[in-house]
Amino acid sequence: MNNDDKNQNSYDTDEKNELFIGLIKKTKRKTVIRNVLISTLCSLVVVIILSYITQLLLANSVSNALHNIQRFKLISGPNVDMSEYRDNNSLFNGVAEYHTYKMIDDVPIPWRDNKIRYNLFDNFTRFEGGYSLLQVGEKISTTQGEYRRPYNEENGQRELMFYLPNVEYHHVINDFNVLNQIDNSKKIEMAISFDKLYTVEQIKNMLPQNISLNWFWVDTYSKKEIKGKQHSQEQMPEFSYNVYGLDAFADINREIPNNEQTFLDYIEEGSNKRGKYEDIYNQILNNIRGNKQQVVDSDVKIIGVVVTGEVNSMKNLQNQNYVRAAVLGAIAEKY
């Protein structure tokens, strides 16, 4: 083989090597691009799946939170009901706002807006600051502290207060004396505290027919609590956020009446399910049960009610021997 042939073969070999190296580089680039695309696609799929899962968890969390609150409302918040809610969540937590209202006969009054925070772990809390009442007017002093007449800070309406039977108070509110100052065309709400324990049927029979029975205040206090209050002078009244009971009717059309067994059903259901208010349900159930093994509906006693009606109708409650205190609440226009 001459030198020219050798040179040609060497040239051909170098050209083949360059083509082979180029092919390898091209294949590597394709592999890198493909791997990048696969990794990006996989990451996108993972993100979408995780986002979907977190949204499901958050939806379940806010649903459970509102269910807890709604069930607790069945035994708390005198004459206060829940309406719609709005929900706004991010990746790991969210904020829900729900509204409450009162019914003064057939007139609804917006009552309070409430916000809660919830998270992926099925936990929820109220916004910091807690629950407080706007207190204005004449100062009332007790050995437990001072207080003024409480008002709803959002709409300026009066908040309800209650007085326990067999407990001495330095000052007991009786708002019958202000009814003459209210236009007869108004509809009003009043918290009536009784002189002793009554049953639901007794209350229905003794209240005047021309007023609406809205809410029962149930005796959920232990004997120890009552004894402590009886031996402490100048007790403060029970504020509306710290009393428990149930609506007089289970439906908005007032066709399905509630009774003592209804309250027990609510309490027992709440105590059997883990939730935000489980401890309160258990405490109420234990207080009602006392030393008994099993609680029955006759153990549930009513110590007050919330009633609504026209001003003149409410005057029929004045001077009734079963009325210990009467506290004016919300006032609504008739039309």
Relevant terms:
335 residues; alpha+beta; 5-stranded antiparallel sheet; 4-stranded antiparallel sheet; elongated
How do the strands and helices of this protein lay out in sequence?
Layout: H1 3-73, E1 81-89, E2 93-104, E3 107-119, E4 124-126, E5 134-142, E6 145-151, E7 161-162, E8 186-198, H2 200-206, E9 212-218, H3 223-230, E10 238-239, E11 245-247, H4 260-272, H5 278-289, E12 302-310, H6 311-314, E13 323-333
Antiparallel strand pairs: 1-2, 2-3, 3-4, 5-6, 7-10, 8-12, 8-13, 9-11, 9-12
Helix pairs in contact: 4-5
Fold and architecture overview:
The protein has 335 residues and is α+β, with helices and mostly antiparallel strands. The protein has a domain at 138-333. Helices cover 34% and strands 30% of the residues. The chain contains 6 helices and 13 strands. The protein has helices spanning 3-73, 200-206, 223-230, 260-272, 278-289, 311-314, and strands at residues 81-89, 93-104, 107-119, 124-126, 134-142, 145-151, 161-162, 186-198, 212-218, 238-239, 245-247, 302-310, 323-333. Strands 11-9-12-8-13 form a 5-stranded antiparallel β-sheet. It has a 4-stranded antiparallel β-sheet with strand order 1-2-3-4, covered by helices on one side. A two-stranded antiparallel ribbon has the order 5-6. Helix 4 crosses helix 5 (278-289). It is elongated. The model has no long low-confidence stretch (mean pLDDT 86).
